[in-house]
Automatic annotation (TrEMBL):
Chain intervals for the UniProt region annotation (Disordered): 350-393
Entry protein name: GTPase
Superkingdom, natural source: Bacteria
Transmembrane segments: 453-478, 498-520
One Pfam family from the record: MMR_HSR1
Biased composition (Basic and acidic residues): 350-360
Keywords of this entry: Membrane, Transmembrane, Transmembrane helix
InterPro entries per record: GTP-bd, GTPase_Era-like, P-loop_NTPase
Species in which this protein is naturally found: Citricoccus parietis
Length: 568
């Protein structure tokens, strides 16, 4: 048994299925439905006989389609009469019975006539038996099969007849359109059938029937006029056969053309390939063929900048700076007044951002409890203001517009949806990114320890001097004889200790204040970089990557469409 030429057809069907899957929710439902129907129909047709070529005769009321069908088959099978319609059910003339039953069942054709000499009342000496026998003997070891279908009128007033014609127009392998000199330009025929099936011109034949009603000199003119109309329908290369079922003129050339198609046994594959191309075109309707700009570094940087502000990073950075200054003052300030700074709450603690790195608990230690786990912790940052929310939404929208520029409208909408796919959880994720960032707030500068030691040394010296002077004063009060205090350049050492310790401590605190402010600015810049990197990871994971995936999906969709339609 002959099989279908599965290589190109398999690839194109797979490509069409892929394009339909990628286009779900992004292209028209009509296009998706058409692609699904083509794939399903192709699977069914390929499951059935590849040895048989199915040729359908289509025509309008009064075109003489049934009479021509009888003339071509050489047998009075179809009912032809003056009353209309003459054909209410599809009628099949079959050559080669083996394998035809399942195919005709799929076509839903119950009226069948076997004409290869094995059916009762049919002789093998008929015109088709002789013609096909000659061709098969020259070309093939095993003869194939041919099925001719006479169908109801496509313009029948009976809705069921039109439904049958429409269904079989999508199932037969070869379409033979029968027109007459009076209605060959009928708008319904061209608008509803020929124009939509223009992609199937390789498996389409047109017959100008009833030429016996024309003067011999007019046949050429009417045929040329018909060819011109077909060219407007996209069927410029479709052969047109002038014929007359009444006189038999032109019947033999038409019969030979059909026999040649049956001999090649490729009409079914050609029809399916045309169906795939047509479905691919419908699936890509509205696709201007543009290529989206994609995610650029500058675009992502602008998005991160906007989200950084909207997430309250500036507030956190200010808190880091104030926290450093407060802690630096405690470590390097004059010990006598340090207690005053402890009355103020740490800005980071007020924001809920000082836990595991608290200097009183050590730095970089594991969370002491689940409450310290940043993944489970929420900051106490103020709720985003409407202006911040609008800023974030605007940045996401602008990012989607810029990255999706150039794509068709449907896919640009999909890119916008991808950009906002995590909009509901984005505030929480940004907050968690901030709480999980190591702000370095509990890590003091190394020189704090040196200054702190000097401060305490100066304070101890001042206290020692005061104690010394106190002892001398108390001894004098009780009239004890005490040796005089040693002096340096005429200044008693106890006095020097007091004033020197106090002056040194105060001066050291004043000198360290600018260094603390400078360190606070450096710490704030470092915290901003880390926070921005954390926000950047969220923006990349929740916005940039979904957008990139959508753009890559569009690229794969276009590639699949190109493969299905045969375009490069």
């Amino acid at each position: 048994m002959t099989t279908f030429d599965s290589g190109p057809l398999d690839r194109k069907l797979t490509a069409l299925e892929t394009a339909a899957r990628l286009g779900e929710g992004r292209v028209s439902e009509e296009g998706l439905a058409s692609a699904g129907q083509v794939v399903e129909r192709a699977r069914e047709r390929r499951r059935l006989s590849a040895d048989h070529t199915v040729v359908g005769f289509f025509g309008a009321t009064g075109s003489g389609k049934s009479s021509l069908f009888n003339a071509v088959t050489g047998h009075p099978l179809a009912r032809a009469a003056a009353t209309r319609p003459t054909t209410s059910e599809p009628l099949a003339a079959v050559w080669g019975a083996d394998g035809s039953e399942a195919l005709l069942d799929w076509l839903e054709v119950s009226h069948r006539h076997q004409l290869d000499g094995r059916a009762a009342g049919t002789e093998p000496s008929g015109p088709w038996s002789r013609l096909l026998g000659q061709r098969w003997s020259r070309k093939n070891d095993q003869p194939g099969g041919l099925i001719l279908l006479d169908l109801p009128d496509f313009d029948s007033i009976a809705v069921r007849h039109r439904e049958i014609v429409t269904r079989l127009a999508g199932q037969v392998d070869v379409l033979v359109w029968v027109v007459d000199p009076q209605k060959y330009a009928d708008a319904a025929l061209h608008r509803e059938f020929l124009e939509p099936l223009a992609a199937h011109r390789g498996v389409t034949l047109v017959v100008l029937n009833q030429v016996d009603r024309l003067a011999e000199a007019d046949v050429g003119a009417v045929t040329a006029s018909l060819k011109g109309i077909l060219a407007q329908d996209g069927l410029a290369r479709v052969p047109v056969y002038p014929a007359s079922a009444t006189t038999g003129a032109g019947v033999e050339p038409l019969r030979s053309a059909i026999a040649e198609v049956a001999e090649r046994r490729s009409a079914a594959s050609e029809r399916l390939l045309s169906d795939v191309r047509t479905a691919a075109k419908a699936l890509g309707a509205g696709d201007a063929g543009g290529v989206p700009a994609g995610v650029g570094k500058a675009d992502e940087a602008r998005l991160v900048d906007a989200l950084t502000e909207a997430a309250g990073v500036t507030t956190v950075v200010r808190a880091v700076q104030r926290s450093y200054r407060m802690e630096g003052g405690r470590r390097t300030g004059w010990p006598v007044v340090r207690w005053a700074t402890r009355l103020r709450q740490d800005p980071l603690r007020r924001l809920g951002l000082r836990r595991g790195d608290d200097p009183q608990r050590g730095t970089n230690r594991a969370p002491a409890s689940a409450a310290d786990d940043p993944r489970l912790h929420r900051s106490s940052l103020p709720e985003r203001s409407p202006a911040q929310q609008a800023q974030a939404d605007g940045a996401i929208r602008a990012f989607a517009e810029v990255t999706g520029a150039g794509a068709p409208d449907a896919w640009r909408s999909a890119i916008r949806r991808a950009a906002r796919s995590h909009a509901d959880t984005l505030p929480d994720e940004l907050d968690q990114a901030i709480t999980s960032t190591d702000l370095g707030a509990g890590k003091g500068s190394w020189w704090w320890h040196v200054v702190n030691a000097l401060q305490w040394t100066a304070l101890v010296a001042a206290v020692a001097g005061l104690a010394w002077l106190g002892v001398l004063a108390l001894a004098g009060y009780f009239q004890f004889e005490m040796p005089p205090a040693p002096a340096v350049e005429g200044f008693p050492i106890p006095t020097l200790l007091v004033f020197g310790g106090l002056a040194f401590g105060l001066l050291l605190a004043l000198l360290m204040a600018p260094l603390v402010r400078l360190g606070a600015r450096n710490r704030a810049r470092r915290a901003r970089r880390r926070l921005r990197a954390a926000v950047s990871r969220v923006a990349r994971d929740r916005i940039a990557e979904p957008v990139t995936a959508e753009i890559e999906r569009y690229g794969a969709f276009r590639e699949a469409l190109a493969a299905a339609s045969g375009r490069h």
